[in-house]
Amino acid sequence: MLTELEQRAAGLESDLVRAQTALGDVQREVAKAEADVQLVRDRSARDQSRLDAGTGSAKDLQAISHELQSLARRQSELEDVELEVMERAEAAEAEVGRLTAERSAVRNEVDEVAATRDAALADLDAEAKQVGAPRADIVAGVGEDLVALYEKIRANSGGLGAAALRQRRCGGCQLELNNVDMNRIKAAPADELLRCEECRRILVRTAESGL
Ligand SMILES: [Zn+2]
After folding, report:
1. What are the pLDDT tens digits along the chain (211 aa)?
2. d(CA 35, CA 69)
3. In sequence order, which residues have a C-beta less than 8 Å from that of residue 153 and are 6 or more positions away?
4. What is the distance in A from the centroid of ligand 1 to the CA of 197?
5. What is the arrangement of strands in the sheet containing 162-166, beginning at the earlier edge strand?
6. Neighbouring C-beta atoms of residue 138, cutoff 10 Å
7. Ligand 1 center to residue 53 CA distance, Å?
8. 122 C-alpha vs ligand 1 centroid, how far in Å?
9. What's the pTM value of the predicted model, to 2 decimals?
């Protein structure tokens, strides 16, 4: 379940990067379209003021008048292009927004599932001390792969595969973690499976971990 969610999160992450790149591209197109329109507007304004001033020969003024007509057509074409590009920019922005929201929802889900897993690992730990084998409902909560890992570690470490991290100490080997390890754990995402560097047991973060 966690792996599946992590894959979804990774997929969304790369979709988002692609969408952001597409948005950047279309935003550059918008800027260019705006500049193209502005160029024609400026030229029209210059022509219009020359026409209004009425200076120059009748032939000159007629040429300016013709140019103004073709500039008006050109402006209208460029404004259509601008509109089309702006619509695409809006769609690209909406896509980035949608993917950002979806990604944060999946990330929250990953954190929740990881917290559930950690709680189940702690149960597994308590259970193993009593009966020696994990209960089926706990196996379901933790996942078969992780239980297999847990069992392997348990077999190699005197019957305790997972241990709670409390007051900077591993509940398995009772050794205090150094600052480097504590900082690494602090920075680790909630879904990362932590191992004690000393005894290799699975470390479960708790509210009293000292993080
Ligand atoms: Zn340890």
Report:
1. 678 888 999 999 999 999 999 999 999 999 999 999 999 999 999 999 999 998 889 999 999 999 999 999 999 999 999 999 999 999 999 999 999 999 999 999 998 888 888 888 877 767 655 555 556 677 777 777 888 888 888 888 887 888 889 999 998 899 999 999 999 999 998 888 899 999 999 999 888 888 8
2. 20
3. 161, 162, 200, 201, 202
4. 7
5. 169-170, 162-166, 202-205, 194-195
6. 21
7. 89
8. 15
9. 0.61
